[in-house]
Design a protein that fits this description.
The chain is an alpha+beta fold. Among the domains are: 70 residues, Orthogonal Bundle (Helicase, Ruva Protein, domain 3); 90 residues, Tetrahydropterin Synthase, Chain A, CATH 3.30.479. The chain contains twelve helices and ten strands. The strands form four sheets. Strands 1-2-5 form a three-stranded antiparallel beta sheet. Strands 6-7-10 form a three-stranded antiparallel beta sheet. Strands 3-4 form a two-stranded antiparallel sheet. About 3% of the residues have low confidence.
Length: 291
């Protein structure tokens, strides 16, 4: 049997919302595999649905710039919120985002090589690092193109802790911005149900079936219940089918259509998602409870 570490229990607790001992039991039952442990909890009805939990750890801000039919969404990181709120950091972020939207570099290395008054963008990052006393780094960006008849919608939450960029076919900027606000708030995984892979659908269907059987439902209605739960799950993770945050009586797709548009694409950045920050004291606290 694999050794279950406190960090694994912490991560499973964050994803599922269950208690320490339930998390440990699930990890033991799944030999330390986090995904299998989540399935175990869902099948047992302890965690009814996986909670998206990007591990937000790094500080910094994200920004969006539009240049004609091109937009860029950028994440710039710092070590603390204090530096992220400083003028040198925010000025650099605006400069980086504008440069990327205008020059459309292929990747981070190409972006760092862009020419600036101080030499290159990399030189600007170094200068800001020296000025603030903290490492400042360009983590990621995405360049998004639209056609002449399309609409960009940009929204920044908490000054750039979350950034969302939306493209609508047709529509207008106000509608696109409302959708971007929804994306920032609700964090959809996919645009439409058609974008969900067969493997993901088969996996979710299997989990829902096991959960339903464990609830003791009659075998003859299990499949119907499973499909109902799968449809509900898809309506929660797919932007087009989600209830629009400003008017829950409409789906997002219905809201956009009513305003002369059609969903085309979206990008959402949450600063620091996927970067793990050390939480040694909390880990020790959990370890003490496991022993």
């Amino acid at each position: 049997m694999a050794e279950i570490k406190a960090a694994q229990v912490m991560e499973l607790r964050k994803k599922s919302g269950v208690g320490i001992m339930d998390a440990k039991k699930a990890l033991v039952a799944s030999d330390g595999d986090l995904d299998k442990a989540m399935d175990y909890l869902r099948e047992k009805g302890i965690a009814k649905a996986a909670k998206k939990s990007g591990r937000v750890a790094a500080d910094g801000l994200a920004d969006i710039a539009v240049s004609g039919n091109t937009a860029a969404i950028v994440e710039l990181n710092s070590e603390t919120d204090f530096v992220a709120a400083s003028d040198p950091f925010k000025d650099l972020l605006k400069k980086v985002t504008k440069l990327i939207s205008e020059n459309k570099p292929a990747d981070v290395d190409a972006a760092l090589a862009l020419k600036t008054d101080n030499g290159t963008l990399k030189d600007d990052l170094i200068a800001t690092t020296q000025k603030t006393g903290e490492k400042v780094s360009l983590r990621r960006f995405q360049v998004v193109e639209k056609n002449d008849g399309d609409s960009f919608g940009a929204y920044l939450h908490q000054g750039g802790k979350i950034a969302a960029l939306v493209v609508l076919e047709g529509g207008d900027e106000a509608t696109a911005k409302d959708v971007a606000m929804h994306v920032a708030a609700i964090n959809p995984e996919f645009m439409t149900r058609e974008d969900v892979s067969k493997d993901r659908l088969d996996h979710e269907r299997s989990v829902f079936k096991e959960e339903t059987l464990n609830e003791g439902k009659p075998a003859k209605i299990v499949d119907k219940i499973v499909e109902g739960r799968l449809n509900k799950f898809l309506s929660e993770i797919c932007l087009a089918d989600q209830s629009f945050v400003k008017n829950p009586d409409q789906t997002v797709a219905e809201f956009v259509k009513a305003n002369g548009g059609k969903l085309k694409s979206f990008v959402r950045y949450e600063v620091g998602e996927g970067i793990e920050k050390k939480q040694e004291d909390f880990a020790q606290e959990i370890q003490d409870q496991l022993n």
